[in-house]
Structure formats: structure tokens, C-alpha cells
Amino acid sequence: MKKEFPENFLWGGAIAANQCEGAYQEGGKGLSIADVLPSGKDRLELLTKGKGIPEIDTEKYRYPNHEGIDFYHRYPEDIKLFAEMGFKCLRFSVNWSRIFPRGDEIEPNEAGLAFYDKVIETLLEYHIEPVLTISHYEMPLHLAKEYGGWKNRQLIDFFGRYCEVLFHRYRKQVKYWITFNEINSAFMIPYMSLGCFIPTPEDRDKVLFQGLHHQFVASSRAVKRCHEIIPGSQVGCMILCAPVYPYSCDPQDVWKAHQEERLMNYFCADVQVRGAYPSYGLRYMAERGVEPKTESADLETMAKYPVDYLSFSYYMSRTEKADQGDVSAVTGNIIGGVKNPHLAHSEWGWEIDPLGLRILLNRLYDRYRVPLFIVENGLGAQDTVVGDGSIHDDYRIAYLRDHLAAARDALDDGVDLIGYTSWGCIDLVSASTGEYRKRYGFIYVDKQDDGTGTLERKKKDSFYWYQNVIATQGRNLTD
């Protein structure tokens, strides 16, 4: 049995531009779809039940994304801390609206590119491999308002122009790319993933599958151009993953879980990794009359240019029951399901299931036989700074330790796992709630939900724990 991870394993952390950068109107940046989302319960309500794109109303709401953790100005300090932990890579995103403020321009915004030049140069100075996510819930607001987001085919070309700029600009510096963050989240939060709201339930599937089709084509075109411009580059897709368990051995529960897992975990990955719509997906769309409109070369492009690796986020598993009348539904997350009586849960109701990660890794690798990359995993929790300034986050260490042990077991199972980037390696604004208090980081950022705070960075106990994990290639997970 292995006691450590492979020598070339990509240890690191993950952040997203809209949740950490701030400076939302600096450097020629345009508004993004994230910039109009308020914090707190109103944000989640809007994401799950909203009917239209909101306007910024600073008298009524707070907008933590506007300041984030000021990574835009403090990135040298933050990257230095990542290097001190021993990061081999950093998964981060480029904010599309920094490069094309409206999204439909012909020429990019040079000031936006200059910022990412400096970020990438700083990473490389510390020998940290950039893992660049091209689209992470940061579509220019103009594309959502004027074009209807990804339900409009024109976005394929706008995204293609954006990709071309990045590929040419960073062809000598960036090897690992991810096209769309959590592409399958369109099924739950279409505004963040597709840049559109769905006005009526009757329109839901039609809009979702059309928007996803456009993203599939855009992703395949990006793979093609990246390989042409950057020989040896690796382009991955990214899925929000939660293995689905049946509540019981009742065949109805088993079938319910099977259906949910195929649509949620596999549908988007089947298209992007295997290069074609799966038969169950074709049936699902045909039975509902929601087959997407396609052009003649679309399916050929998707088949010819699949992704090189599959990356995914994992926070929890999901349990399904055919008849949910006598059980409690899970609350606090967007993936749904019923409560699993065998699992504990976080403060936000997210069930904690380290073994689920091993199960998921095996299922994905058995199905796809391409390299896998865990690019998000972590525990959102409220941290307390004690009198001497320290932050004792044993709960986070326990969560990460158990999940990394499960990943190491999956390596023993024969899974080709190339890396692990803990989500929110530095505290940032939560995507689902827009809060600072839901913290994930190894590094504490002094910023509170009421807007107070100095933005000072402090190392948590988990900082030193993860530093040791990386230094020992995972041999000492419990130290």
C-alpha cells in the first residue's frame, strides 16, 4: 500500500477571481454576473428562484465581491504565503470581464491582461504551476443582459475570441487549462453557469440543454485551439460531483439514485470526455422535446476534440429516495437529496463523507480512463481568532486529512489522480451565500460580513498542517 502521493503530484489550492480579487471597477474591468449578486439569504434566493438579472442596490444590500479579499492589490503577499506552504500549483480563474469588459469587443483590455501577466509571473517565480480556469462564474454582465447568456449561440464566438487571447498571451507560461467551472451546475444555478434566468418551469430544460450545447461546442473549439497554439498543453473540463447513494436497497431507490447520478455527475463529462451525447441523455431530451438546435459541424467538433483530463469539485455525497414523504430533505446546499443518517454535516448542512471521495474517484476513473484532478475540496466553517492571534481549526484539518486519506486509497485502487487543490486556500467570499464568515482557507483574512476588517492575513493551524503534508508527500497526514 502506498504511504505517499506520487512525486509529481500537483499539490496546491484553488481560488476564483470574482470571490477574491475585488477591484471590481479598476483597470478597465466591466461588470460581471457576480458583481450584481448581494450577500446573505437574498443571494441564494435569487440564484435558485430568481426570474431576472438584478441591478446593484447598495442602499439595500452588501456586495462583498466588490472588494473580495483585495487579491487584486495583495496577490504578491498571498502568493508568497502559498509558496511558503509549498504549493506546486495554484488553480485560479481569469475574470472574463477584465479582458473583455462587455464580452463582445474585438480588442481586449490591455490593463486586464497586464494584471494577469503579473500574477502568473509571480507564481512562476515561486515555481508554482498555474492551473487556469477560463470561465468561473464570471461572464461579462453585458453578455447576460443583451444576449441572454449561453442560450445565445453568439457566445461561442465571443468565448473563442477570449480563449485565443489567453492562449497566445500565456502560451509559454500556462500548461494546464480548464474551460468551464462546474459546467453541470447549470442544472441548479443556471444564472452562475449559463448567465441566464429561466422564467418558467416549462422553459427550464429547453434553455438548459441549449445553453449546455453551446458550452460543449465552445469547450471543444477551445481544446482544438489550445493544442494548436500550445503544443503539449492539457485542457480539462470541470464538474461539480457528488456520488449518489440510494436511501435503501429498494429497487425504486436504487433506480432513482442511478438516474440522478447519470444526469448530474456524468452527462456533461460524458460529452466532454467521450465526445458525444450519451444514449440516456438523448432519450431524456427526446422524451421532453428539448433537443438543442445544432449546426452541422457541432457533433463532429465535439467528437474530435474531447478534453485531456477530468477535474472536479467534491464537498459531499448525495442520497436519493424515490418516495421522500417520510424522510427529511437536505438543507443548506444546492444539490438536494435526503439526509443520510450515517453522515455528520457541517454548519451549513453539507454532509461530510470522506469515503464518498474514494467512491467517486473510482467511479469516474472506471468510466473515463483519463487523468483525474481534484480541484475543489474543503470545509466552510466559522473560525475564531483567539487572544494571541492564533486560529485553531482542528475541524478543518480533520476534514482535509480524511479526504486526502481517501484520495490516497484511490491511488492504491489504481486511479490516475494527478493533483489536489483545496478550495479557498485563503479565505474569500462564499459563492453560494456571499459571506465572509463561511471560511475555507489555510489563511485567515480579517474581513467581516458587516464590512469591517483590516484584510490582514493570519496563518491558521491548518496552514502548518498542509505545509507538512506537502513536504512529506502525504506520508504524515495525521501529524
From TrEMBL:
Major enzyme class: hydrolase
Annotated GO biological process: carbohydrate catabolic process
EC numbers on record: 3.2.1.21
InterPro entries: GH, GH_1_N_CS, Glyco_hydro_1, Glyco_hydro_1_AS
Cellular-component GO terms for this entry: cytosol
Catalytic residue list: E376 (nucleophile)
Transmembrane region(s): none
Gene Ontology MF terms: beta-glucosidase activity
Database matches in SUPFAM superfamilies: (Trans)glycosidases
UniProt cross-references to Pfam families, sorted A to Z: Glyco_hydro_1
UniProt keywords, alphabetically: Glycosidase, Hydrolase
Recorded family membership: Belongs to the glycosyl hydrolase 1 family.
Name of the protein: Beta-glucosidase (Gentiobiase) (Cellobiase) (Beta-D-glucoside glucohydrolase) (Amygdalase)
Organism, scientific name: Treponema primitia (strain ATCC BAA-887 / DSM 12427 / ZAS-2)
Lineage of producing organism: Bacteria, Pseudomonadati, Spirochaetota, Spirochaetia, Spirochaetales
